[in-house]
Amino acid sequence: xxxxxxxxxxxxxxxxxxxxxxxxxxxxxxxxxxxxxxxxxxxxxxxxxxxxxxxxxxxxxxxxxxxxxxxxxxxxxxxxxxxxxxxxxxxxxxxxxxxxxxxxxxxxxxxxxxxxxxxxxxxxxxxxxxxxxxxxxxxxxxxxxxxxxxxxxxxxxxxxxxxxxxxxxxxxxxxxxxxx
Length: 180
Description:
Blueprint: H1 9-26, H2 31-43, H3 47-50, H4 64-73, H5 79-98, H6 100-106, H7 118-135, H8 139-150, H9 152-171
């Protein structure tokens, strides 16, 4: 998993956009949650991270249903299972929040994902991650994932606002104003 340094330009951009979108539009002032979401956006710039989970054959898992099935096959309670559930939450939140129009395509008739709700699976993935973190006595992490589960829809709306803001930046990048 790519963990960009704090000073990475994309991470700084996403941190600012996420903080602004969540506070200004939703009234959410939750630094750990906002940091998590801005890091998620930065990580998922790379398709290798978006599709980092592997099935038993070694192939990348590209459908949410495949990820859930694989997570259920793993030994109960281990770090690997926790990482799978966390990724399921991240994957579902990313698509639901940033590219909701793509969820329809991801859930095409030829995909197993047609039978599942990205929101329900994302909430479940984060809640199971929270419980596994709790078992490891990582209370702050457990609480963060619990909030991601409970506030999944709010986080998805906030990520849509982040996308709107970065699309505005593309139209009118800072420093391109005409002074006259």
